[in-house]
Each structure stands twice: as structure tokens, then as C-alpha cells.
Design brief:
The complex is a heterodimer. By secondary structure, chain A is mainly beta. Chain A contains 7 helices and 22 strands. In chain A, the strands form 4 sheets. Chain A has a 6-stranded mixed beta sheet, with no helix packed on it. In chain A, a hairpin with a 5-residue loop joins strand 3 and strand 4. Chain A is globular. Chain A starts with a strand and ends with a strand. Chain B has 12 helices and 7 strands. In chain B, a hairpin with a 4-residue loop joins strand 6 and strand 7. Chain B is α+β, with helices and mostly antiparallel strands. In chain B, helix 7 packs parallel to helix 9 and helix 7 runs parallel beside helix 10. In chain B, about 60% of the residues lie in helices and about 10% in strands. Chain B has 3 domains: about 35 residues; about 80 residues, Sandwich (Immunoglobulin-like), CATH 2.60.40; about 250 residues, no CATH class. Classes of the chains: A mainly beta, B alpha+beta. At the A-B interface, strand 1, helix 1, helix 2 and strand 5 of A face strand 1, strand 3, strand 4, strand 6 and strand 7 of B. Strand 1 of chain A pairs antiparallel with strand 7 of chain B, so a sheet runs across the interface.
Chain lengths: ~350, ~400
């Protein structure tokens, strides 16, 4: 009958994904649920996947808020070096912290600066970067950046400083290259475990000339394998908390350029995707070219892939966005844009 | 000497002091003992078993029981990989407590579902629903259908089997022994079959209630109870008549054993019906008729030398067959694997008791071991049950 299992989800997920997909497409037409929806009326059943009606996580206790993460860019502390270049410095802590990842569900996370995803580090191409990494966690970690840098600054075991033990620290120092949208994550082994526990963040290198002015948003796609069986995730999210933007839609202005820095760091599942309703966007894979590669409403990213989306919403109203791997949508990866004049 | 006797404390006082000392020691152990041992180092042990699933359009109700060591807090629920709104389970469920969750699921007829309960620690407890079917409403029609099922698979086949009695009267003592051997064979088959079924059922049931041990417990209890009944009947019989009522007593015992077995059989049929797994077609009815007709034969096998009255025969028939009705009713309205396992165990114990009753009758006077006709009968009984059982796979 029923087994208490930290395994087995994969079986269910694989064999029963069809049913979930059917429900998911129906959910696409759903209205957002009010914070305290009347029970079993709407916002459940054919009106789409949801946590228990009215239930939300305690963002204050978590110490971070997905709505704030959206526009939270950390430019570090800057100074000018002797050669005139900008020196940009950060201090990043590895911290073990328990997060309420879904209403009533505690997840023992390993984090950068006590939040999932970690801080969005932003700089300009050519800057000199110094990231002082202090391991305040009970576990060994590293900080591995995507980008172009010397081998001993790569943050992997056995090269350069290698593993940073609990209580130790190390300063990663390199030039910001190339411009584009990148990421960083822990590279201690087992790699999948360290990533899935929450050790990742966005790393943006702006081009020498600014991109056109826009309302800029960070979206990190990820999941939580709450059973720790390493066989898939029980929760899927953007910026930390599943279904969050269903309750608190992402507010944008009609006609204004919206730029989304979209990163996929989802562990265990081979792909992730982003689909926007009622609108199309220009897509800049990895953000390393200033010309878009595609004008579309759906893109797919493997783990570590990322890209920049640029949209102007011509119509006001609520538009869904979600993984068009609809199973992930039904397990938390869905939200709304709210376009106002 | 006499002074020492009088100063001895009364018995009740000694009992009181002993009990008080025991309680005191236990309390001291509970208080002090726990601090001398380390805390459990592992995560909380969360276990839930689903006792009842009720499907109504758009809603799945699950009655869940905590059969683990620690309280379980249900946090969220997803069904076929989609989170759902639900009611119930707001507070932690304590050990052995039950709670009903009402899930808002637009389920489709005949489709499989996997209900995943996500607890506060992130554990996932899964409950598969093999094929979603609306749970029958418990109303007049329901009782009528269950009574009909019970009659078809219990009473009618047994009555059919008992109709062989006139034929049996004409056969020789050797043939009678072979027939009793047949009875033993089919009873042994039923006992083994019910044991396996009970163990399978119970291994999925709430472990806190004993799991597969429940089958053995039920069997043991039924065996002891029937042995006691047998002693009682035997005592009365001995006083009334030396040997005369022996065969009827044996028939009653066999009918009781088979009745308890049919209770379990009805239970299995009823629960299969409730979850929509049972096709109540002609094949099933005919299959059971074939299968259980042999049970009727077993009931009357000891009566070849008797002239039992019609009411006595009807009574035997109801004793052996009617529990199937009760079983079907219970099975269709209560989904409780632990209870089912216990009831199946009763049947096993009852049959074991009956077999020990019949075995002496298999031997001819003066023989020390079973003769060939009896052994042939046992073999035939097992084979008949096996092959007729192929018709009634639930």
C-alpha cells in the first residue's frame, strides 16, 4: 500500500507524468489565487496546481524574499587600481541554514550568504574581481565561477586552493571575462549534492557599453530534492520559493523594456525551460552577443545554461510564465507577470 | 512461630507495595534512563499508512494513520506530480492517530494516481491508486449487492456441494476416507492460500499493528478458540452419547472453519469491488461456485453414516457460507489491511483446527499411518482447489 520512501519518486514521476501534463495545460488558463482562496473553489483542481490554499512560507524567517531577489544586484565594493581599472570586491559566506522551501516544509540548505539562490554578483567586463570566500558551513566547499580565469582560480578540488575547509577562507581573484550572463556554484564533491543543497548564484558581466535601459530581473531556475535521494526533485522554483509569483506576480510596466537574466541550475533533471504567455521575447544565449538569436516564447536550458530575455509587454493584464516541462510547472515552477500602465 | 505469622503483612499490602515499587522503578528509569543514553542520531522516523481511500467526483479522501515512531506533519500533497489543494492534516499526527485528507483532484475514471504526501521534513510518503473509480455509496442498493455477492460465492456453492450427501451415503468406508482426505487437501490449500494473502495484505498495513504477525495472531486465536469450543462440545457429547454425535460435531467444526475462511474470502471480494477491481461477471460467479462447491462437500463428508435433519443441513450451510456476506460488506465499506489480515488469520487458524479434527478419521481402524485412498484424497483436494482457483483470481 503505502511506503515511506525517500526513493521511488522517479518511478512515479516517469510513469505518471502524462497525467500531470494534462492538468498543467489546464492550469495555464487559471486565475491567480487570492492569498486565502475559499477551500476547493478555485485555484486547485482544474484551476491548476497549488499548495494548500492560502498557505505561504515565512519569508522573514527565511531571511530572503523572492520578490526582492528579482531586482537585487550586488555590485560589490569598488575602488580604482593604480592602472585605472576598477577593482570590485565581495565577501561571500557559505552558511548552513534551514529554509522553509514550501509552506510547512523545512529544507536543510547549504547556501551562499544564507539565501537560495545566492547573491547576484554583477560587474563590468575588464573589472578586476576579488571574491573573498569564507566557509562558515560545517562542510567543505568551493566557489567555482563560470567565465574565463586562471586555472588556480577555478574553485575545483585539487587545483589552486582547492577545497576550502570549514572555518577557512580564500580570495578568488580574476578579471571579469567575457561579458554575458554567467553563474557560480560550489564545486566540492559530490557535486550534485552540493549544488542541489542550494549553493549557486548568478554572475553578470556587463558589456563595456551598457545594454539599453530596462527593468532588469534575475530569474534562477532550480529545485529542491527534499528526500535527498538524488533521483529528481519534489519542488521546482524560480528564485527560491515554488509558486511564489502566483501569489505575488512580477510587476512590470506596459511598453517598458523588461530584461530577464535567466539561469538554469536545476540539479538531477536533464532540462528546464521557460515559457511566457501572450508575449514573445528576444533571446540572447549566455548574453555574450548583443544580437538576439531568436524571437520566441519558449526556450530550453540544460543545467548551467543561461540567457538574457528582452520583452516589451504591449498589453496590460496577467500573463503566466512557467516551465514548459509542465510537470515542473505543476510542482512549483510557475508564476505571473502583472503588466500595468 | 505464631507471632511471626501474625506480623506478616497481608497479601493485598504486599501486592500494593510490589506494584508501587515497580511503578516507582519504571518512573525512575524513564526519568534517569533517558538521560544516560544518547539521543537518537538519525532523522525522525515518519510513517503513514493509508487506511481508506474514498473517491467522489473531483475529490480524493485519504484516511491516513501514523504508524511510525514520531509525529508526522503533513505539509503539502502532490498527485501525479502536481501539487493540490487539500483540507485536513493541519496539526501533526501523533503515533497511531488517524486523520483524513481531502484532496482537490479532478481525477479521471480508470486512470492510475500516485498520491505523494510531503511531510514537514521533506519526506515523501506515496500511496498509489491503481485505477480511480468512484467509491460505491453505502446505501440500500449497496447492501443488496454485497448480500448477493456473498450469497453467490458463499451460500449457493456450499449448498450445491452438500447436495452430494445422498450419493456419499452409498459409498464404502474406504471411499469416505478418501473423501475426508479430499477435504483435508482442500482445507490445507485454503489455509496456505489465505496465509499468503494475509501476509501480502498485512505487509502493506500499518506496521505498528503488527504487520504479517497479525495473520499468525489471528490464526493462533482462532485455533485456541475453536479448540475450546471443541472441548466443550466433546464434553457434552460424551455425556449424552458415547460416539453418536461425533460426525455432526465434526461437520459443525468444518463448517465453522470454512465459514471463517469464507469471511476472509468475502472480505477480499468486497474490497476488490469497492476499489472497482472486481468484474462481477458470470466467470467469477461460476468460478466461485466450482471452487466453493468442494467446501460443501467437505462439510457433509463426515455425515455419510448419518441422517441429519433438513434444518441441521441448512444451519451447516449458513454457518459455512453466510460469513461471505458479512465479509463482503465489511470489505467493501472498511479499507483496513490490518483488520483484513487479522480476519484472514482467523480463517487460517480455524482451518488448521478443523484439519487436526479430521486427520484421525482418515485412518482405518488399527492403521498407524494414512492409507493410499486417504493420501490420494488429500492430493486430489489440493489439485482440485488449485485448478478451480484459477477461475477466481481477484
Amino acid at each position: 500500500m503505502t511506503s515511506a520512501t525517500r526513493r521511488g519518486l522517479l518511478v512515479g514521476g516517469a510513469s505518471l507524468g502524462v497525467g500531470a501534463a494534462v492538468i498543467g495545460t489546464q492550469g495555464a488558463n487559471a486565475q491567480p489565487q487570492p492569498a486565502a482562496a475559499p477551500h476547493m473553489a478555485h485555484g486547485g483542481g482544474v484551476n491548476g496546481a497549488t499548495f494548500r490554499a492560502g498557505a505561504v512560507v515565512d519569508h522573514e524567517a527565511n531571511g530572503f524574499h523572492p520578490t526582492e531577489i528579482l531586482r537585487d544586484f550586488d555590485y560589490g565594493t569598488t575602488s580604482v587600481m593604480a592602472d585605472g581599472r576598477v577593482l570590485r570586491e565581495w565577501e561571500i559566506y557559505a552558511v548552513d541554514t534551514e529554509i522553509e522551501v514550501a509552506p510547512g516544509v523545512r529544507f536543510p540548505a547549504w547556501t551562499f550568504n544564507s539565501r537560495v539562490p545566492g547573491p547576484t554578483l554583477r560587474c563590468r567586463q575588464g573589472d578586476r574581481l576579488r571574491v573573498r570566500f569564507i566557509n562558515g558551513s560545517a562542510h567543505p566547499h568551493t566557489m567555482h565561477f563560470h567565465g574565463i580565469h586562471p586555472a588556480d582560480m577555478d574553485g575545483v578540488p585539487g587545483v589552486g586552493a582547492g577545497i576550502i575547509e570549514p572555518g577557512d577562507s580564500f580570495t578568488y581573484e580574476f578579471d571579469a571575462e567575457p561579458f554575458g550572463l554567467h553563474l557560480y556554484h560550489c564545486h566540492a564533491g559530490p557535486l550534485a549534492e552540493h549544488i542541489s543543497r542550494g549553493m549557486y548564484g548568478t554572475f553578470i558581466v556587463d558589456p563595456p557599453e551598457d545594454r539599453p535601459p530596462a527593468d532588469e530581473l534575475i530569474m534562477v531556475m532550480h529545485g529542491y530534492n527534499t528526500t535527498f535521494d538524488g533521483e529528481g526533485n519534489q519542488l521546482y522554483a524560480v528564485n527560491g520559493i515554488p509558486f511564489h509569483y502566483m501569489h505575488e506576480p512580477v510587476k512590470v510596466r506596459r511598453g517598458e523594456l523588461v530584461r530577464i537574466y535567466l539561469v538554469n541550475i536545476l540539479e538531477y533533471d536533464p532540462i528546464n525551460s521557460f515559457h511566457l504567455h501572450g508575449n514573445f521575447f528576444d533571446y540572447y544565449p549566455t548574453g555574450t552577443r548583443l544580437e538576439p538569436s531568436e524571437f520566441t516564447d519558449t526556450i530550453i536550458q540544460g543545467q548551467g545554461q543561461r540567457g538574457i530575455l528582452e520583452i516589451r509587454f504591449p498589453q496590460p493584464g496577467r500573463f503566466m510564465f512557467h516551465a514548459h516541462k509542465t510537470e515542473f510547472a505543476d510542482l512549483g515552477w510557475m508564476g505571473f507577470f502583472e503588466v500595468t500602465d | 512461630m505464631s507471632t511471626r505469622l501474625t506480623t506478616r503483612p497481608p497479601l493485598w499490602l504486599m501486592a500494593l507495595v510490589s506494584t508501587a515499587a515497580l511503578v516507582g522503578a519504571l518512573v525512575a528509569l524513564a526519568l534517569a534512563g533517558s538521560s544516560t543514553l544518547p539521543e537518537r542520531s538519525g532523522p525522525p522516523i515518519e510513517q503513514l499508512s493509508v487506511e481508506r481511500t474514498v473517491l467522489t467526483p473531483g475529490v480524493i479522501d485519504l484516511t491516513i494513520r501514523n504508524d511510525g515512531a514520531d509525529p508526522v506533519q503533513v505539509a503539502q500533497v502532490f498527485v501525479n506530480d502536481a501539487y493540490v489543494d487539500f483540507e485536513g492534516g493541519q496539526a501533526p499526527i501523533d503515533r497511531l492517530s488517524a486523520e483524513t485528507l481531502s484532496l482537490d483532484v479532478p481525477w479521471q475514471d480508470g486512470q492510475p494516481y500516485l498520491v505523494s504526501i510531503l511531510t514537514s521534513t521533506g519526506l515523501v510518503i506515496e500511496h498509489p491508486i491503481e485505477a480511480a473509480v468512484a467509491t460505491p455509496q453505502v446505501d440500500g442498493d449497496f447492501f443488496v449487492s454485497m448480500a448477493l455477492i456473498g450469497t453467490y460465492v458463499g451460500i449457493i456453492p456450499v449448498a450445491l456441494g452438500m447436495m452430494f450427501l445422498p450419493l456419499l451415503r452409498r459409498v464404502s468406508a474406504t471411499t469416505t476416507r478418501a473423501l475426508l482426505g479430499l477435504t483435508v487437501g482442500l482445507l490445507a490449500f485454503l489455509a496456505l492460500d489465505a496465509t499468503l494473502e494475509g501476509v501480502e495484505l498485512a505487509s502493506g498495513a500499518a506496521g505498528a499493528f503488527g504487520g504479517p504477525l497479525l495473520v499468525l495472531l489471528g490464526a493462533g486465536l482462532a485455533f485456541l478458540a475453536l479448540t475450546a469450543v471443541d472441548r466443550y462440545l466433546r464434553g457434552r457429547v460424551d455425556r449424552a452419547d458415547d460416539r453418536g454425535a461425533g460426525p455432526m460435531r465434526l461437520s459443525v467444526m468444518i463448517a465453522t472453519g470454512i465459514g471463517l475462511h469464507n469471511l476472509g474470502e468475502g472480505l477480499a471480494i468486497g474490497s476488490a469491488y469497492a476499489v472497482g477491481e472486481l468484474a462481477l461477471g458470470a466467470a467469477l460467479i461460476v468460478g466461485f461456485a466450482l471452487h466453493n462447491t468442494t467446501e460443501g462437500l467437505a462439510v457433509v463428508a463426515p455425515l455419510t453414516a448419518q441422517r441429519p435433519s433438513l434444518p441441521a443441513l441448512v444451519g451447516l450451510c449458513l454457518l459455512a457460507g453466510a460469513p461471505a456476506i458479512l465479509g463482503a460488506l465489511v470489505g467493501a465499506s472498511v479499507e483496513n489491511a490490518a483488520l483484513s489480515a487479522l480476519l484472514l488469520g482467523f480463517g487460517v487458524g480455524a482451518i488448521a483446527q478443523v484439519v487436526t479434527q479430521i486427520l484421525p478419521s482418515l485412518k482405518a481402524r488399527g492403521e498407524r499411518s494414512l492409507n493410499l485412498p486417504a493420501l490420494g484424497g488429500v492430493t486430489a483436494g489440493v489439485l482440485v482447489m488449485y485448478f478451480t482457483g484459477l477461475f477466481v483470481t481477484i
